[in-house]
Amino acid sequence: MPGPSDKTGNAQVRLATIVIVAAFALWMAGSALGGALGLPVRFAFLLDLMCIAALVWALAVLYRVWRRRQDNGV
């Protein structure tokens, strides 16, 4: 039977999923918009670093949830 920590894990997985989808959408839209507007390359690198940071954070959250579920035997 799922306990309170299971609900927290599900919420964290849901949040990480939203962050991943939003980061990729922002990455693609920002790259297309930056190219269309002719923005300097430094803004493209800044966008890349922000999106990579979001993806690394989501990966860390998913790893932590996965380890917690492995420890609990879920």
From TrEMBL:
Carries keyword Transmembrane?
yes
Q: What are the UniProt keywords, alphabetically?
A: Membrane, Transmembrane, Transmembrane helix
* InterPro entries the record matches: Uncharacterised_Ynq1 (IPR020308)
TM ranges are 15-37, 43-66
- Name of protein: DUF5337 domain-containing protein
